[in-house]
UniProtKB/TrEMBL annotation:
Domain of life of the native organism: Eukaryota
Entry-linked CDD domains: GDPD_YPL206cp_fungi
Sequence ranges assigned to domain GP-PDE in this UniProt record: 20-261
Source organism of the structure: Kwoniella shivajii
Protein name: GP-PDE domain-containing protein
Pfam families named among the record's database cross-references: GDPD
């Protein structure tokens, strides 16, 4: 069996401001407890087009909307989620930030998005790599499949955000009707492991500030690959992201982004950076410099190799024994054998020996939390 891409490439045009979406990063997390129903509801009320949230599975198989692998940072709970049950333990945990909220279940967020007034909202799920997808994805599939019209009204709105290539085959197997995006901050990792298997890439904003980043954006457009950026809370970064004409901007400040977008629609002059920022902004952060991006690459590789549920060196995805499926019930569909000479070459895996030595002095917040107990891999991104 083999997987054969049959859909022709449809280039993506640069979007106008009115068509660029706002996705609430962990909901409206700038002013409400992150990844809670209150935060998700507020983001929708403030005008977001999508919700970005994270999933972890408990020891008894319950899927939660939660970012960190541990409960400590944002709640009254302690310790790893995957070693504790929902029933009788995590169900009683509450946020430390007010208004005090419980941790929401995946099924509760799905129910919120299936309300008639919310059926326009996209759900971008950050699938945390500490979880075994063979446990996580079947339960998500079970919950989604409870809705009779899931194939038309729900699955097209769900994006599986994948950090690690080991999650690609299970995504095809259990959630084939959901879209797949890679989340990360390294263009070489995209090219080596995700390009052929994802229809979009959710990238760290500073990557696209460089010439290489802009070339990557154009390459994605020509090849029909969507681009979103995270996490954009600065007004000038919002303007820059809008000017790129990408699919969506992930932000904690939903209301601020929606207001800026509307201001630009009303008067396109508002897209211009104010004052001296027109000249200084591209040089205003070390994160925008191309010289910093190899450090991002090394950092992401470090985390992917050590923090994944199955640690080890990364390898290109092999889908030869898993055919493309159109539903969760049709996992095996025979296809014609394709001559090897017609297949695109498999990229060589990235090895740490090929990366310049160096440590990240400050880095990306999301992967700092992804790393969990590993100290010193990453610092906190400047706000």
């Amino acid at each position: 069996m083999s997987i054969i891409q049959t859909n022709p490439i449809k280039p993506i045009l640069k979007r106008e401001t009115k068509d660029i979406e706002c996705w609430g990063h962990r909901g409206a997390s700038a002013h409400l407890p992150e990844n809670t129903l209150a935060s998700f509801q507020a983001a929708i009320q403030e005008g977001c087009d999508g919700i970005e949230s994270d999933v972890h599975a408990t020891s008894d198989g319950v899927v939660l909307m939660f970012h960190d692998p541990t409960l400590d940072r944002t709640t009254t709970g302690k310790g790893l989620i995957k070693t504790q049950p929902w029933k009788g333990v995590i169900e009683h945990v509450r946020t430390t930030k007010e208004p005090v909220q419980p941790i929401p279940l995946f099924e509760e967020l799905i129910a919120l998005l299936m309300k008639p007034e919310n059926r326009h909202v996209t759900l971008n799920i950050d699938c945390k790599m500490q979880n075994d997808p063979e446990r996580l994805f079947p339960e998500m599939s079970r919950i989604i499949s409870q809705y009779p019209d899931a194939g038309t009204s729900l699955c097209p709105r769900i994006i599986l955000g994948l950090w690690h290539p080991l999650f690609i085959p299970p995504a095809y197997k259990y959630l084939p009707q959901c879209r797949r995006y890679h989340i990360g901050f390294s263009i070489p990792i995209v090219k080596s492991y995700f390009w052929d298997h994802c229809e979009g890439f959710s990238m760290y904003f500073p990557l696209l500030m460089s010439n290489d980043g802009q070339a990557f954006l154009e390459e994605c457009r020509k090849n029909g690959k969507e681009i979103t950026v995270w996490t954009v809370n600065d007004q000038n970064e919002m303007r820059m992201a809008i000017s790129w004409g990408i699919k969506a901007v992930l932000t904690d400040k939903v209301a601020a982004f929606v207001q800026l977008k509307n201001d630009i629609i009303d008067d396109p002059n508002n897209l211009s950076l104010p004052g001296l920022s027109k000249l200084t902004f591209p040089w205003s952060s070390w994160r925008y410099y191309s010289l910093a991006h190899p450090y991002f690459l090394r950092t992401q590789l470090d985390v992917m190799r050590t923090m994944c549920y199955q640690p080890g060196e990364l390898q290109p995805v092999n889908l030869t024994e898993l055919s493309m499926v159109s539903s969760a019930n049709q996992v095996e569909a025979e296809t014609e054998t394709q001559d090897q000479s017609e297949l695109a070459p498999v990229p060589e895996p990235i090895h740490m020996d090929n990366i310049n030595d160096g440590k990240v002095l400050t880095g990306v917040e999301d992967l700092q939390l992804e790393a969990g107990a590993v100290n010193g891999i990453l610092g906190k991104v400047a706000a």
